[in-house]
């Protein structure tokens, strides 16, 4: 079959783009002809339909009219929406001969309403089967609450998502929400990872990251925050933990870490952030907060790409050169970066976000936890001082542990058992059949 995996964007390091790549790999292995389709495609060999992008200039204007400014009449908004829908409909003719479209988030987030309507109408009129792969829902975000137009509200009720297509969600909370809010049944297919792929290891190429970021490879400790820079990732809580570690690390001078680094008077702790900055106000707050806490941040998205290329490194390279992974996210559809850390065999600090607590924690991964009772203080998330202290002590114990391989290997085995490509292939066969 000819299958298209469609999203606002492909070829980036966000969770949806990464998951689409995995589905493409498995569906291709199953004997299908599979294409990525996006409004933005980065360096990927993919079908580009520019108006699908939520960052498309005309869509950004319409989106602001609907959800932000409320300065346009309902008639003006609907006229603009229909104009864009017709334009996108015409652009979709390039995928007229597809058998199946797997539509990622277009029907669940209202980032680009005309694109969702155009894809719905086009697929229906051209008899293309549609599967909605929903990673997030619009009702989970405050941004979408500010709508004055009743007709736009009705569109969200009817088409986000439409009832008559197949539906896939990535966790049990989403399945229950979709059923209770829309009376729509869905199948859970969790995020997965290719646990059979080549292990990420330090080599001559990715070791250049140390010099690029002015980090001492032999004496400094590197924590990796592999997510995008957005407020719900709770990066400030990683900063709080590192602040505690800064106070304690030199008690370990002349001691050797699990990966043969030697701590001395000049040793520093760094939090490296190769993800995209997608919330500038939050970004500025993080910088200010880290300065207050005397925590060293290294923002390095300019040297991170979806693959190795001239003067750039893949996201996997950053995992390979890191000593510890931080993942203090407040809200995740599932948790790509968690599985990546498990595959990389790196120790992990997490906040127990709802999906982790409900779906993943029962697998009994060995992690350092910040608990599940975060609150906002001075516009940033935090947990109790006791949680930070306990987490810092556990991290130090792990960093200087001789049994790290036992922890990492056991996490890897659990990840492979429950979240591998073989699990995904079985789920996709059932879905498509």
Mean pLDDT: 95
CATH class of the largest domain: Alpha Beta
Instruction: Output the radius of gyration.
Output: 22 Å
Structural class: alpha/beta
CATH architecture descriptor name of the largest domain? 3-Layer(aba) Sandwich
Features:
433 residues; alpha/beta; Rossmann fold; 7-stranded parallel beta sheet; 6-stranded parallel beta sheet; 15 helices
Q: TL;DR of this structure?
A:
This is Glycosyltransferase involved in cell wall biosynthesis. The protein is an alpha/beta fold.
What report would you give on this structure?
With 433 residues, the chain is of the alpha/beta class. The chain has two domains: 2-189, Rossmann fold (3-Layer(aba) Sandwich), CATH 3.40.50; 208-418, Glycogen Phosphorylase B (Rossmann fold), CATH 3.40.50.2000. The chain contains 15 helices and 17 strands. It has helices spanning 15-29, 57-69, 74-91, 113-125, 150-159, 172-182, 208-212, 235-248, 280-293, 315-321, 336-343, 354-360, 385-399, 404-418, 421-432, and strands at 2-9, 33-40, 47-48, 100-104, 129-134, 166-169, 187-188, 221-224, 269-273, 296-299, 304-305, 313-314, 324-327, 348-350, 368-369, 375-377, 380-382. The strands form four sheets. It has a seven-stranded parallel β-sheet, with helices on both faces. 43% of the residues are buried.
């Amino acid at each position: 079959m000819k299958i298209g995996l469609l999203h606002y964007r492909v070829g980036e390091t966000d969770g949806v783009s990464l998951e689409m790549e995995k589905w493409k790999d498995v569906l291709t292995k199953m004997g299908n002809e599979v294409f990525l389709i996006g409004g933005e495609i980065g360096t990927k060999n993919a079908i580009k339909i520019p108006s699908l992008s939520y960052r498309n200039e005309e869509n950004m204007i319409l989106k602001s009219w609907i959800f932000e400014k409320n300065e346009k009449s309902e008639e003006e908004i609907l006229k603009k929406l229909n104009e864009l829908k017709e334009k996108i409909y015409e652009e979709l003719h390039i995928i007229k001969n597809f058998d199946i479209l797997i539509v990622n988030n277009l029907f669940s987030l209202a980032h680009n309403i005309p694109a969702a309507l155009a894809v719905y109408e086009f697929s229906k009129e051209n008899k293309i089967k549609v599967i909605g792969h929903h990673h997030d829902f619009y009702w989970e975000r405050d941004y979408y609450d500010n709508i004055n137009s009743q007709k736009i509200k009705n569109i969200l009720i009817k088409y986000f998502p439409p009832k008559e297509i197949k539906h896939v969600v990535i966790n049990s909370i989403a399945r229950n929400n979709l059923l209770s809010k829309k009376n729509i049944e869905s199948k859970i297919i969790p995020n997965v990872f290719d646990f059979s792929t080549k292990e990420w290891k330090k080599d001559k190429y990715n070791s250049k990251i140390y010099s690029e970021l002015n980090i001492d490879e032999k004496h400094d400790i590197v924590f990796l925050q592999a997510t995008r820079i957005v407020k719900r990732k709770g990066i400030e809580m990683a900063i709080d933990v590192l602040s505690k570690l800064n106070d304690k690390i030199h008690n370990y001078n002349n001691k050797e870490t699990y990966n043969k680094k030697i701590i001395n008077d000049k040793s520093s702790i760094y939090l490296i952030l190769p993800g995209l900055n997608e919330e500038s106000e939050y970004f500025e707050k993080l910088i200010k907060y880290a300065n207050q806490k005397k925590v060293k941040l290294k923002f390095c998205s300019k040297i991170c790409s979806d693959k190795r290329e001239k003067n750039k490194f893949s996201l996997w390279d950053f995992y390979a050169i890191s000593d510890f992974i931080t993942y203090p996210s407040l809200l995740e559809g599932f948790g790509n970066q968690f599985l990546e850390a498990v595959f990389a065999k790196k120790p992990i600090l997490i906040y127990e976000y709802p999906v982790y607590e409900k779906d993943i924690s029962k697998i009994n991964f060995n992690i350092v936890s910040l608990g599940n009772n975060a609150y906002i203080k001075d516009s940033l998330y935090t947990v109790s001082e006791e949680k930070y202290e306990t987490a810092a002590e556990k991290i130090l114990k792990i960093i200087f542990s001789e049994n790290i391989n036992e922890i990492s290997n056991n996490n890897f085995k659990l990840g492979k058992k429950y979240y591998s490509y073989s699990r995904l292939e079985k789920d996709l066969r059932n879905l498509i059949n």
